[in-house]
Amino acid sequence: MKKRRITFNSPVVLSFAIISFGVMAANYLTAGLSNQLLFTTYHSPLTSPMTYVRFFTHVLGHMGWSHYINNMMYMLLLGPMLEEKYGSRTIIEVILITGLMAGLANWFLFPTVALCGASSVVFAFILMTSFTSFKEGEIPLTVILVAVIFIGQQIYEGIFVADNISNMAHIVGGIVGAVAGYTLNKKA
To answer: Residue 103, CB half-sphere, CA atoms under 13 Å: how many?
Structure first.
């Protein structure tokens, strides 16, 4: 009988989930101070070096366990497939670019709103995944449907639903994921 072993099959995605778990635990242990200082981006002065750090690190913070769990379910579902297809370095780049773009968009467009969580990265992964079967000269119907449903939902919720969710971050993440998915598959 063959011996089974557990493998660390997706180092970037698994590390992201583990680090985010640690950040979530630290947030509880510090009564929210760690998120405020390191893992939430908001309209802080551009003269502060931490403003630039938080443009990237806000994707690691979450406002509660359900927020963390929902994001990590999608990350762990979609991320390993993307990491296997495109490589760890590409996934790191997508995470960093998505974090930066969402952080900058939030800083410039919503000066009174704080942004925290991996939702932008999750939506980047969702749109990237829809491009995995993309071939030159073709546009898969799944890409069109995902984009229309996704963007439509975010616009609707942004206008009509009063919640604490940054639809802008979702849209930015979706755009980054769509551009990355299209570009990476076009090269292939």
So the answer is: 27
| pLDDT tens for each residue of the chain, 188 residues long | 788 888 889 999 999 999 999 999 999 999 999 999 999 999 999 999 999 999 999 999 999 999 999 999 999 999 999 999 999 999 999 999 999 999 999 999 888 989 999 999 999 999 898 887 777 667 778 778 877 887 787 777 767 666 556 778 888 998 999 899 989 887 66
d(CA 31, CA 164): 19
In the CATH hierarchy, which fold is given to the domain comprising 11-187? Rhomboid-like fold (1.20.1540)
- The residues, ordered by sequence, that sit 6+ positions from 114 with a Cβ below 8 Å of its Cβ are 40, 41, 42
Dist CA 85 CA 133 (whole Å): 11
The residue ranges of every structural domain in the chain are 11-187
